[in-house]
Amino acid sequence: MWSFFSRDPSKDFPFDVGEPIPGLEDKSVWSLHKAKKKGSGEEVSVFVFDVKNGSETQLDVAKAAVKRLKTLRHPSILTYLDSLESEKVLYMATEYVEPLETHLTQLSKEGHQRELYLAWGIFQITRALSFLNNDGNLRHNNVCMSSVFVNSAGEWKLGGLEYVAGASEGTGLPIKILPVLEKYDAPEKCDSSKQRFVTKCSTDMWGLGCLIWEAFNGPLPQQAQLKDLGNIPKQLSTVYCELVGANPSSRPNPADIITRCRKLGGYFKNDLVDTLLFLEEIQIKDKGEKNRFFSAITPQLDNFPENVCRHKILPQLITAFEYGDAGSVVLMPMFKLGRLLDEPDYQKKVVPCVVKLFTSTDRATRIRLLQQLEHFIGHLQAATVNDQIFPQVAHGFMDTNPTIREQTVKSVIHLAPKLNYNNLNVEVLRHFARLQSKDDQGGIRTNTTVCLGKIAQHLHPQIRQKVLISAFIRAMRDPFPPARSAGVLALAATQQYFLLSEVAVRILPALCQLTVDPEKSVRDNVFRTIKGFLGKLEKVSEDPSLRESMEADVHTATPSLSNAAATWAGWAVTAVTSKFYRSQSDTVKSITPVASKTLSKPGSLEQPSSSSISTTTSSVTSMTSLEQEESKGAESVSDYDETWDTENWGEMDTPASPPSTASEPKSLLPGTKEKKGTDGWDMEEWGSLEEDLAAESGQGEGWGTTDFVPVEDTAGTKSVNTYNWGDGTKEESANRTQSWEDTEWEPLEETGGASSRLEEARKKREERKLQRQKELEARRATRLTGGPMKLGTKKI
């Protein structure tokens, strides 16, 4: 029983007191210690007063400080957590802080960042004094550098409440126990004739002047030094002189100081103070104000102190996203500040927000997420990417908005290293096969080819061998010139994955057909690529032992960086991996549907539809920039260059006039007619270069982007192993059907060179062309009389 009463009560204190923090040795009755909360390990600070070695007066002052801190709650006043009094010691636990003097010595001595930060700190102390003097009707009586502390978020907190007294308790000033604090006493303390002019805030305003002097010039040696402004900025000098004036009644009220200095040109009017005040009041701001704020904050963050960004601004941004209507505009500053976090904090604070964002149906949010993917993909676990993020991203492949589809294709570059076998080798390639052949946007078809070349190293070797050649040859037959260039460059950039037999039998014949391409830039790339492939074949012909090293990467999951066979195509590697084609949808933030209109000319005339005008830009403009880009690529033999956003395949940022009928044939292959729409994608004969592309006739006159509906995945979709990506054999189209799923995707081999067989095949093609033309004429006539054909209706 007696052991119970003799038990040390300090053991019940819920904090483990650690090592002391220097800075308060002779300036306070307290000593400051680091501490951790028992159980959670949360860092706090504990002010310790040694009862045994302290005087009775000092103990009374310390108890008064605890009592005051318990009852005062303000964002700029030290946050009280707990306290404990025993016969030996008095503990007072607060949020984790350090003395202001210690903190300022760690800041850079000069620079814009320090200036902004000091303005924010002085503003906070002025605000705290306004609360005490005006709202609490109290006087602090001890304002100086030793009574101000800084927390982990860089916020200045007013402490040192040992001498707080009510404003109605007389004009006399308390006697400071510690002699070192007497230099901060106002001059009226020793001049009884001036005490009748003392106001409720005059004493604290003198102390605020002392604090301002010390913030810019260091610790105050003696009171006479206050006459020398030193490093105090000109903006603040007028207010400072009023604060340290000899007449107490002339010193301004802290509320008036805030009002004056917050005006345009005032000391408290800067980006950091504006930003932090807005975040404190964000709950009462309307959506328009929030959008403007978050759009403007990103470039300003570089001028803010790191601890303020990490512990003050970033938590506010996350809170604004989770519990407010900040929307997608908060993403850019949030991801930029997320880099300051260590990995455990990032996983805890940012990753849950990212996963939640990917479930959003808001298109603006999805686009911003996909654009910022590279900034946070490295922090995401593979399981999170495959189970929670990729299923949401995959919806973008079938979105009706071209911008969403294009950004989704580009995002695969960053997702590919973390995707599992099924998601990458089956799901992604299934969507790529459809986009490359059926998407009405030439830029998206081009970027699909570019992306496939960039992710080739991550594909399974068997899938890679089966898919790449067919996919790139298909791109080489695209009517859009940059798409053909992308196919050629992709073949050269991924040449280490092809067997030499495939080079001779499939790749070179397909490349030779483009040596007469109407676009010179395409022809230049083709000739360069052909020379490279022929060089490989010649080397192996001279020395067959090189064949093994040439094909070393064909069946390996991770390509060899030292493969000498890849060096000749360095120009193509740079071209295909450094730049995406920037389509029209990449330069606009929202797609405005094109108004429907009826063409006055008959459908049989080769008049481009409004769909093609709205979704395809001038090939002349595209190829001018493409030639410039390729001339640069020819000089470069560097490795993968990931700065593909700075330059692009065929710059489309400049406005281009809609292509006229006279310029359209320049974009088509020899022997083909003008493409007039998107109706006949499923009837396209990719097996022959001589097929009539008029099958894509003018349905969709006046289509807007909102008229497209997602292509639904039907049951029983085949594995990508069974897809035939269209290798260009002349008999491939013989058994072509209308259905995407029923199409045989395995490449068909040539059956010899007998002239009779070739003649028979040619006649069959001619018959099919005539039959198809008759069907299309009938459909045009029906459409002209019956109105525009709707998606989903049964085709003739």
From TrEMBL:
Stretches assigned to the Protein kinase domain: 18-268
Keywords: Kinase, Transferase
Molecular function GO labels: ATP binding; protein kinase activity
Chain intervals with Acidic residues compositional bias: 638-650, 681-694
Composition-biased stretches (Low complexity): 609-625
Pfam family, one: Pkinase
UniProt xrefs under InterPro entries: ARM-like, ARM-type_fold, CIK-Related_Protein, Kinase-like_dom_sf, Prot_kinase_dom
Keyword field contains Disulfide bond: no
Stretches with biased composition (Basic and acidic residues): 757-780
Chain's role: Regulates COPI-mediated retrograde protein traffic at the interface between the Golgi apparatus and the endoplasmic reticulum. Involved in the maintenance of the Golgi apparatus morphology.
Entry similarity comment: Belongs to the protein kinase superfamily.
Protein's recorded name: N-terminal kinase-like protein
Taxonomic path: Eukaryota, Metazoa, Ecdysozoa, Arthropoda, Hexapoda
